[in-house]
Structures are given as C-alpha cells and as structure tokens.
Amino acid sequence: MPTAWKNCLKILKDTVPLTEYSVWIQPLKVSEKEGVLTILAPNVSAVDYLKKNLKQKIKVAVAQYDKNLKIEIGIETQKIKKNTKHATPLFSEYTFDNLVMGTANQIAYGAIRQIAENLKKSPYNPCIIYGGSGLGKTHLMQAAGHLVKSQDPKIKVIYAPVMDFVRNITTSLRHKTIENIKTYYQSADLLLVDDIHLIAGKEKSQEEFFHIFNFLFTTKKQIIFTCDQPPTNIRSLEDRLKTRFAQGLNLSLAPPELEMRAAILLKKAENKIININLNEDTALYIASNITSNVRDLEGALLKLKAFVNFSKQNNLIITKEVIDIALEDLIKPKINNIDINDIQKESAKHYTVTVSDLSSQTRKHHIVLARQMAIFITHEMTNFSLSKIGKHFGNRDHSTILHSIKKIKEKVENDTEIRNEYELLKLKLANL
Ligand code: ADP
Ligand code: MG
After folding, report:
1. What element of type H or E holds 38?
2. Would you say which domain of life the source belongs to (predicted)?
C-alpha cells in the first residue's frame, strides 16, 4: 500500500464516521505511480458515492502528505469477472409458477412478488422470510431471483446459502483475498441470503457480512434473507445485525393447511420429474395423513412413484388402498383390527351395564356415559363411519354419534376420572 494512502487512511479514520469508513474507504484498492494516486472502487455505485461524498475529504487528507499528488478514482473491473466462481446457481424449478399459494404463505408470496416486480423501488429492504424447515423459504426466495432475471437479464442476482458465504470468507482469509469476495457480494443488485441463522457464532463472517450488508443497503440494493426463526431470537448473532434485520420486513411462513397440501401434491404430481396420476381425492387423502411440511409431501410422492413404477401391475391406478400400502410407514398407523363387539362387551363390563343397554333408548345417567364412551372408542379404534357406528348403537343417526363423541372428548380432556376410565378401557382392548 502506498505510504501516501496509509497516511491518508489514518486521517480519514478520524474524520469520517466509522460505518462510512468501513463501507466506502476500507475496500478501496490504491496504487501510486508517477505522481498519481489511483483509487479503485469495487463498482459503479461506490465510484459515484466516493466522487459525491468523499473525494474532497480524501484530497485534503492526501494533500497533508504530498500536495502535488493527483487523485484518480476508477472502477476495479477485472475483479468482478474473476469472482464469478463464488456463485451458486438458482434451481430452475423454484419459480413463482411452481409455487402454490394458500393461507399459509399468501402474505409472504405477495410481498416477495411485489419486491421482485419493483426491485429498485421497493420500500421493503431488507426482507426476511422465516419459518420451519421444508415450508418453502428457499423456493420463494429463488422465485424472486428468477422473476427479476426474467424481467431484465442484466440485473445481477446473487444467491448465497449462508454456509457458502462462510466458506468463501474462510478461504479468502487464508488466501488474503477477502476484498475480492466482498467485491463480489457487493456487486449484487439483488442479494439472496439463505438460512442466515447458520451464521450465528461465526464472528468473522458476521463482521464481513455486516459491511457487505451496509454497503448494499446504503446503495439501495435489495437484500432478502431466509431464517428458520424470527432473527431477533437467534442466539450468538451480533446485536447490530439483529437491529438491521428488525428494521426490515419480516414475513413468516406457516405450515400449509390441508387444501394447500393437496394442491401442492397435485402440482408436484404433474411435474415431469414425478409424473404420476393423482386425483383430488387421493391427493386429499395423502395430505390429510402427512401434515408436517412440504418436503415430506414430496418424499411421499417419490415413494408412491417408485411403488407404481416397480410394482408388477401395468397401469396401476392410484387408489387409497395403493397409497396405504406404498406409504405404509409414512401414514400414521390406524388400529383397524379391533372388533366393535369387543368394544361394546368391554365397555358394558367396565360400567356394569349390559351390551343391550348400549343400544337402548334409556337416558339413565350411567348408561348414557357407558354408551357414549363405547361410541367414542369405536370412533377412535375403528375405521367405521359415523352412520355405521350409529347402526351398531340402536340405529342412532350420525349427528347423535357426533354429539356423543364431542361429549366424551370434552370429558376426557377435563375430567381425570373419565380420562383414567378411557385409558384403562383402551388398554384392555389393545391387549385382548
Ligand atoms: P425451506 O427452504 O423452507 O426448508 P424449500 O423452499 O426448500 O423449504 O421447500 C421444500 C420443498 O417444498 C421444495 O421442493 C419446494 O419446491 C416445495 N414447496 C414448498 N412450498 C411450496 C409451495 N407453496 N408450492 C409448491 N412447492 C412448495
Ligand atoms: Mg431452505
């Protein structure tokens, strides 16, 4: 580093605010030749900023060392080309077209789409999408990247899974190329940082990230993050980063509701990678059994596809029965083998009433309780429909059966004695 610049830095450190110093001054590459001090900034925005806001201060500081030294400010072009090796491409499937919208994601979907459509004018900067694993954070973030690029291929979108960022920082520290890597990230018009929570506890990466963030933020470049929790909850994350994140738009993704899960299944089933024949009924059936997240829904579809492809039958139609077999270990086990006669016998014995009392019209208190309990357990331990249960209990209609189920459910939740009776009966039945 030229001595003139070294001296200049000392002076600037005292005369320029610290954030301005670290964002604009520190990354500069400076050389001196034949009475000219050449100052190279990482990109056009930085050159503009320097010329507008800092050139005068730099001149004054340099003049204190050598009055005759001329100053030239330019852009460090060849660095940008060299650094493309740091890039992680967007996944071609993660577009808005392939993203199903439902109550669980409609606000986040709408906001991210609006940001992508109005990149330079969006007031939502930074923007943070947070939620549990497999809920579509990466997909939504990348959809923004695709949309922005489709509108203008010249716009630079950088997708950075945080662990890639950490690795790039670590490597560049070893090779003393940290400024290159910063230049690369700072050249983004849209920076997508995936799983920011993983930066917790990595101090050096946080520090460098803070500078990159400030640079992009002050040059009005859009930043979108994803996080597995609200960023303010992350432990071992510097307060100054938390504060920055809290200033942005925080969007949460919830687990998709039943209909949305079914819609996602139908969409994915059509996809050429999966390409299996599901209808709404079967999609709803899978969706009602797999409730965790979208990634698990996809896992189920792949399993189903493998089953269909490798089963010996040609043109196997996917029915609920096929699904039960193919997804046996994913679908929550149902206890199907309990006989309704056993349920009635054991319930009657337990409450010292007769089996026929259970089907009678008697409204005596202890008989009503025994009857409702037997109905509740039948509903729980068999696959019988409400009307089929009704037939076995004195031809009652399905609304009466539903009422009994509700009554016992309340009691089991609120009355310890009833809960014990219920647990005991179930245990007896399971051990018959
Ligand atoms: P996260 O980043 O939250 O862990 P991903 O974005 O990786 O989750 O999503 C997991 C899988 O679920 C991906 O294959 C994605 O395409 C799919 N997915 C998630 N949400 C939706 C949705 N609303 N519509 C369609 N596919 C979705
Ligand atoms: Mg992700």
Report:
1. strand 36-41
2. Bacteria
Distance CA 3, CA 407 (A): 86
- Tell which atom from ligand 1 comes closest to the C-alpha of 105: 23
For the entire predicted model, the pTM comes to 0.66
- 255: cis peptide before it, omega within 30°? no
- Of 295, 258, 303, 256, the residue nearest 276 (C-alpha): 303
Query: What's the confidence (pLDDT) of residue 265?
Result: 96
- Check the CA dihedral 316-321-323-328 and report its sign: negative
Distance between start and end Cα atoms, the chain: 85
- pLDDT-above-90 percentage for the chain: 52
Ion ligand 2, residue ranges at CB < 5 A: 137-138
The dihedrals phi and psi of 133, each to the nearest 5 degrees, come to -70, 140
85 band by pLDDT with thresholds 50, 70 and 90:
low
Q: To 10 degrees, the CA torsion angle through 9, 15, 20, 26?
A: 0
Tell me which residue has tokens 């500078």.
Answer: 211
pLDDT in the model for residue 290:
87
Ranges of H-type helices in 118-250: 137-151, 162-174, 178-186, 203-218, 239-246
The first and second tokens of residue 97, run together, are 């077209």
Distance 386 CA to ligand 1 centre (A): 36
Residues 6+ apart with CB under 8 A from 207: 238
Q: Quick check: 377 and 391 in contact, CB under 8 A?
A: no
Q: 134 in ligand 1 pocket by Cβ < 6 Å?
A: yes
CB 193 within 8 A of CB 223: yes
All domains in the chain, ordered by first residue: 3-75 (3.30.300.180), 86-252 (3.40.50.300), 258-331 (1.10.8), 340-430 (1.10.1750.10)
**Residue with tokens 């490798």, as numbered in its chain:** 310
Select from 91, 130, 139, 258 the residue to mutate for testing ligand 1; criterion: most ligand atoms less than 8 Å from CB: 139
H/E stretch holding 173: helix 162-174
The per-residue pLDDT for 64 is: 86
Backbone torsion region of residue 62, taken as left when φ is above 0, otherwise alpha when ψ lies between -120 and 50, otherwise beta: alpha
